[in-house]
Each structure stands twice: as structure tokens, then as C-alpha cells.
Amino acid sequence: MLEANRALMTVYVLKEDLKQLWRFRCEREARRFFGHWYARAMASGIAPVMRFAERLKPYLHGILAHCRWPLHTGLIEGINNRIKVIKRMAYGYRDQEYFFLKIRAAFPGVARCPFENPPVARATAFGRRFFAFGKTAPPSLPALRAHPLRGRG
Predict the structure, then answer these.
(1) Whole-angstrom Cα distance, residue 121 to residue 133?
(2) Higher-confidence position of 100 and 27
């Protein structure tokens, strides 16, 4: 039976081996592992496997990035979905800064980007105030709620 399905068995073993690539946390070891897997795929002589290995090779840099940043798409999709909800609720916000504050407030555990200047209140052409953020973190949620241009939400 195995002799009759040698190509199928080879593809199955290569598939299971390739799944191990996601378990590496050292980029050098993962690169070495992929090199061995790639050589075995090319030596298999199975045209679809060889074509798949060739098409996978240009994406190796992105695959190896998983060693440094082991984020799964579920987390990223969840973050993107939450931002879309905030964007829908943001209809009527008068400034972009408040919108970004709402996004930052939705993800309190996520590290914030450094800013250039400390918060400064400025007057706009309409006499309203908005805040430009500097090296300090964005304001807390109570300060966010007290924002004069907060709109809905």
C-alpha cells in the first residue's frame, strides 16, 4: 500500500515537516530548517511540491519574522475589527487626534508610540481647542472624555 502511494506519503511528510517551521523562535535555526526542507522538496521530484517550494521561497523573510514577532492573524484581525468599530462610531468626530485617542484607549495594554512635544492646547479657526501630543503618553480616559471636540461616543 505504501509503495503504491509513495508520492502521497512524501507530500504528507513534507507538509507535516513544514508545519514545524512555525515553532522556531530562533531565526537562524528556522532558516536552516527551511533550507533542509526546501532541498528535500526539490529532491522529491514531485512537480507540484517543487513548484510550491519555489513559490514559498520569496516569502521566507516574512515567515522568519514570526520567530521575532510570534503574532497570529487572529490577534491582528481582532485589533483591526475593533478599530473599524471605533471608526464607525467616530462619525461626527471633529478632529483626527480624538479618533486616535479613542483607538489608544481601546487598547490600554498596547505600547504607545513616542511623540515629539508635550501636550499643548491650541486654538483653531473656530475658537475650539484640540490637543497635540508630545513625548508624554496620551491623556487618561477621564481626560479623553473631557475632550471639548469629542463628538459622539
Answers:
(1) 9
(2) 27
